[in-house]
């Protein structure tokens, strides 16, 4: 029975998925849950196929691109299922569109057709696994067929290409994005395949617990694909011209510890992590005891009855008082923590471990937002375990790991005195940067320009583009620019800081030996062209941060950025883009954003929430630091004003008007304006009259002196005219 593979046709494909569920219940032989029609197998790596059968049974598995073998197996499989489940079959739906167009791939000199057969014996638990030789990417239809005795199961329309595993939280899982309607309408890429699910469990699972379904990318299906994974896969597919499979296991609101192996979390020497793990283990242990679970549910039902009685009494009282009836609010049913939303290792156990034998090209990770909320201190310990866990589980110590850092979010233009102690996104980005800095197979993907005041910004196309450029350059050795200049070195001289940068490899190749390149080629530039370089702050030994001015200069014959501040005589450290929503506007070639960085290694303000007491203590401490920072920001503005106003006066009266007399009169006018504030400001005037009567005489004397100075200056100016 040949299947019709075209957009919008459900037919036999859906029916096979339905009867496949029934078959899994009735027949011991089955493939692991990740193996379904339309999937992609990773090229150039051993192809592992596994599943279950009767204990001790011999299983023969065939991986083939021979249509005669594959289609015959599908016919046989469909016939057996139809005979076993006659009511489960659905009639194939006919496409009622008179005219339709679908992209087809024409391969020139495709690789030889695959046809391999392997045998395995199921163990005592019925588990079996085979491994096929690596294959080249191809758009040739592929079948996976498993036989055991008179049992048979098969999947079709499989392709060999590139697989990327996408994990993280809501910004990885979101479907909406700007220009989605236009983009999805042209999403006719049957060579892009997508599968997604989310799950959590307190122990590693051998197989997924949900029925999965790989889908071809079409204008209809793309509407339901998560934005970043789909767009990332689409960009790779169009550039590499090979099938691309995207596995998305993201779940909103998850923390870093949910995406690491439990054995790696257990190795962390941190009292916060130890507390989190011990508390979770105590919860799961309770739910492993049927007697305790029975008591928990009994207490819950009793609480419901109590709530109903109390509500009835409130309703009666409300009626007697002639008031509206109150709403009935029942206690929530206790949730089983063993499948909690974001427990330690929970997402990893239920989504990554079941597919750990599947070959993948790399991992794209987009998470950290939830660690912004007073959870960044524990992230220092947990995030470094995430790439390590993925690599160990998937059996590849050099597995590429692309980390998408958080977009801009929150209040734009926050004072640096406050941002450096209260902005969790800045801390999370920095933790990720430091953890991956020396990892040759990992990369930080800066996306802060794509943000806005919403924690789920809709600008997802550039996020996926930046991620795909990282993958193309670092995983596939494509000659594409993938990042802005990256901070490399700091030098201090004459009360200024000088920052040196590494270049994108493609930009570096543009510079010929012995050439003196222009600054705009080798240094970060403003996105807006010839504009001020924004987003820098500097601090002296007192660790108090101030906005800094930046400019392109040469130091010792090398181009660099010079940072300075009127208010910091001897700066020792610099940061760029340190805020939830950075003001930084630095880009490299192709307008690729410069990654955020800091030159110091000073401890970050603590942000913890592992217990109510710790959370309260942390919140109170951060509130104090924010209040102190707000005061410092006001003080800094006043001090900066004292520097700026004289410079502005010189600019106006000497450089522009070329009149020293007007400069003198301008400064006198500024003195008079300050004296006027003692009278014009109601609060200040009342305070002086009530509490500082003796100062009023002194102020009057000063005013008299200023007025005499003004009169003398005016007379001299008139005489010169």
User: For the report, how would you describe the main beta sheet?
Assistant: 11 strands, mixed
Number of H/I helices: 20
Structural class: alpha+beta
Q: Whole-number radius of gyration?
A: 33 Å
Proportion of residues in extended strands: 15-25%
The strand count comes to 24
> What shape does the CA trace take?
globular
Helicity, in percent?
25-40%
Q: Provide the residue-averaged pLDDT.
A: 93
Which residues form runs of ≥5 with pLDDT under 50?
1-25, 89-93
N/C terminus separation? 105 Å
Write the layout of secondary structure elements.
Blueprint: H1 11-26, E1 30-31, E2 40-42, E3 47-52, E4 58-64, H2 67-84, E5 115-121, E6 127-132, E7 138-148, E8 151-168, H3 170-173, H4 180-185, E9 189-196, E10 215-217, H5 227-240, E11 244-248, H6 262-266, H7 271-287, H8 290-321, H9 346-352, E12 362-366, H10 376-382, H11 385-393, E13 401-404, H12 416-422, H13 424-436, E14 442-445, H14 461-474, E15 486-493, E16 496-502, H15 505-510, H16 519-522, E17 525-526, E18 536-539, E19 545-547, E20 549-555, E21 558-564, E22 573-576, E23 586-587, E24 597-598, H17 612-656, H18 660-680, H19 682-691, H20 693-720
Parallel strand pairs: 2-8, 8-11, 8-12, 9-11, 12-13, 13-14
Antiparallel strand pairs: 1-3, 3-6, 4-5, 4-7, 7-8, 9-10, 15-16, 16-21, 17-23, 18-19, 18-22, 20-21, 22-24
Helix pairs in contact: 5-14, 12-17, 17-18, 18-19, 18-20
């Amino acid at each position: 029975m040949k299947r019709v593979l075209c957009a919008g046709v459900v037919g036999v494909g859906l029916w096979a998925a339905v009867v496949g569920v029934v078959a899994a219940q009735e027949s011991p032989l089955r493939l692991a849950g990740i193996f379904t029609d339309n999937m992609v197998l990773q090229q150039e790596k051993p192809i592992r196929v596994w599943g279950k059968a009767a204990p001790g049974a011999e299983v023969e598995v065939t991986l083939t691109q021979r249509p005669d073998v594959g289609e015959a197996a599908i016919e046989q499989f469909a016939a057996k299922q139809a005979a076993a489940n006659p009511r489960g079959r659905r009639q194939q739906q006919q496409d009622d569109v008179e005219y339709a167009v679908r992209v087809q791939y024409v391969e020139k000199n495709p690789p030889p057709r695959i046809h391999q057969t392997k045998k395995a014996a199921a163990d005592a638990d019925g588990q079996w696994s085979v491994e096929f030789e690596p294959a080249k990417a191809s758009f040739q239809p592929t079948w996976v067929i498993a036989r055991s005795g008179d049992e048979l199961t098969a999947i079709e329309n499989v392709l060999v290409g590139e697989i990327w595993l996408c994990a993280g939280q809501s910004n990885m899982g979101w479907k909406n994005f700007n220009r989605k309607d236009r983009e999805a309408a042209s999403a006719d890429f049957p060579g892009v395949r997508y599968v997604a699910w989310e799950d959590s469990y307190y122990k590693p699972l051998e197989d997924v617990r949900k029925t999965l379904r790989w889908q071809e990318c079409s204008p209809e299906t793309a509407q339901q694909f998560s934005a970043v994974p789909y767009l990332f896969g689409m960009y790779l597919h169009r550039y590499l011209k090979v099938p691309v499979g995207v596995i998305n296991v993201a779940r909103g609101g998850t923390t870093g510890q949910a995406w690491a192996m439990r054995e790696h979390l257990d190795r962390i020497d941190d009292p916060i992590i130890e507390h989190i793990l011990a508390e979770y283990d105590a919860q799961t242990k309770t739910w492993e005891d049927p007697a305790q679970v029975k008591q928990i549910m009994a207490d819950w039902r009793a609480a419901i009855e109590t709530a109903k009685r109390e509500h009835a009494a409130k309703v009666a009282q409300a009626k007697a008082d002639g008031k509206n009836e109150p709403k009935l609010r029942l206690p929530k049913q206790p949730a089983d923590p063993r499948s909690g939303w974001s427990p330690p290792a929970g997402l990893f156990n239920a989504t990554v471990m079941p597919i750990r034998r599947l070959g993948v090209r790399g991992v794209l990770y987009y998470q950290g937002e939830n660690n912004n909320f007073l959870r960044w201190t524990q992230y220092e310990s947990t995030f470094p375990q995430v790439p390590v866990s993925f690599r160990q589980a998937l059996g590849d110590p050099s597995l590429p790991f692309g980390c998408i850092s958080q977009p801009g979010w929150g209040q734009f233009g926050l004072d640096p005195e406050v941002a450096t102690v209260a902005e969790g996104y800045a801390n999370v980005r920095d933790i990720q940067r430091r953890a991956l800095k020396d990892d040759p197979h990992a990369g930080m993907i800066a996306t802060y320009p794509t943000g806005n005041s919403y924690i789920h910004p809709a600008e997802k196309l550039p996020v996926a583009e930046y991620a795909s450029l990282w993958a193309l350059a670092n995983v596939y050795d494509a000659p594409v620019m993938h990042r802005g200049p990256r901070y490399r070195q700091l030098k201090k001289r004459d009360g200024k800081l000088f920052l040196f940068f590494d270049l994108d490899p493609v930009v570096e190749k543009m510079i010929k030996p012995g050439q003196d390149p222009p600054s705009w080629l080798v240094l970060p530039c403003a996105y807006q062209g010839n504009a001020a370089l924004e987003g820098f702050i500097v601090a002296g030994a007192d660790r108090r941060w101030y906005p800094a001015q930046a400019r392109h200069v040469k130091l010792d014959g090398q181009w660099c950025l010079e940072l300075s501040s009127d208010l910091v005589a001897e700066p020792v450290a610099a940061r760029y883009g340190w805020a939830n929503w950075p003001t930084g506007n630095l880009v490299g070639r192709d307008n690729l954003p410069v990654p955020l960085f800091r030159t110091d290694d000073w401890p970050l303000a603590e942000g913890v929430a592992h217990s109510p007491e710790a959370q309260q203590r942390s919140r109170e401490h951060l509130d104090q630091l924010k209040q102190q920072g707000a005061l410092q920001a006001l003080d800094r503005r006043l001090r900066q004003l004292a520097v700026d106003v004289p410079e502005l006066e010189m600019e106006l009266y000497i450089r522009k008007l070329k009149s020293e007399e007007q400069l003198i009169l301008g400064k006198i006018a500024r003195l008079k304006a300050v004296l006027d504030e003692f009278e014009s400001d109601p609060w200040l005037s009342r305070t002086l009259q009530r509490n500082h009567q003796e100062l009023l005489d002194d102020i009057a004397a000063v005013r008299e002196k200023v007025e005499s100075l003004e009169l003398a200056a005016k007379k001299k100016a008139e005489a010169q005219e």
